[in-house]
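FW: tagging you since you asked about this chain on Friday. Here's the raw sequence from the shared folder, copied in full. Didn't touch anything.
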Amino acid sequence: MHQAFPQIETKSAGEDFAALHEAFAAFRETNDERLAQIERRMGADVLTQEKLARIDRTLDETKRRLDAQAMQGARPLLAREERDVGFSVREHKSAFRAYMRAGESAGLKAMEEKAMSATSGPDGGFLVPQPAEREIVQRLAALSPIRAIASVREISGAAYRKAYPIVAAAAGWVAENAARPQTNSPQFADMNFPAMELYAMPSATQTLLDDGAVDVEQWLAEEIDTTFAEQEGAAFVNGNGTGRPMGFLAYPKTAMNALGHGKIGYLPTGAPGALPAANPSDILVDLVYSLRAGYRQNARFVMNRKTQAAIRKLKSTTGEYLWQPPAVAGGVASLMNFPIVEAEDMPDIAADSFSLAFGDFRRGYLVVDRQGVRVLRDPYSAKPYVLFYVTKRVGGGVQDFDAIRLLKFGAA
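HL: got it, structure written out here
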């Protein structure tokens, strides 16, 4: 089978990191040559354009290899020593493995009855052991770009409710002996973040399940983490809130002069489907400073790789490239000294598209995780394979609309 990046297995992280910086140096040199040709002849040479495109692809591929290596190194193993907190850890793991391998559910039923759980095999599956659940969530944080930068709350109910102050309590200065007039009472709006059901259905042969050397919990986590992360990533960006989380691009958007609760502010580039023709980097400076100082401290740019390729060509007024490769192995690229988060679910640059976001997503976006990952074993529907219906409840939405700004590639 053809592999997209065979160098992953033949190059070390250090070699890839050095290759990334060499590729970016070649990119700068070639792009400068292209710009010089445009100035001299009112058009860049075709060969130079092709060379620049090849180097650009090399940059993307090398960065992707580095990201994959960093992600692989950050993944913790499921098979580890755990604290003995009673039967609920060791015995639950043993009973869960018996259910996964042979469909034996008596042990899990007895334990969940002791825990006063309403879950049963026929109607909802069984909870995976808590250590495995924690590892699944950690894997999602490594794979899902928005989850990795957002706030995450764990709940036990169906939704997370939060009060948002629309009108804050009045305050002011007063002399020592002056009268204290009564202040206005604060007013709050109720923000509700329901947890929606996310599911995956990995399959295995009975031979694999009978193999005692196979860690079934780790196998399950590896089968579902990428699927869950892809679905989460799409929902956290573009989800409509119906049966899935509400993505930050799905909220009403407004120009900066009409900001209000429930709306995300944006700046237009002034050119449909493009950056401004004159001084294109200035709009990024305006975007950065559209956030208050308290939000800028932990802010990040969020875009997909095609948008990043366009941004990579921008320079400051002093001729320095605004995009910079990671300073250390395992780091992230930066734009104007702010980290870049590559989210493939962000839209490509097009007329009136919101292809670039900037903000403090830790304060701006909230991910809600309901406790418990459930598994229902199905050995009948796809013989000779055994299906595992895995469900997890996840919600999400914007919790602070002042913390996120968008760049609109449009006239207004």
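FW: The first strand starts at residue 126 and ends at 127.
HL: agreed, and The longest helix spans residues 13-41.
FW: great, closing this out.
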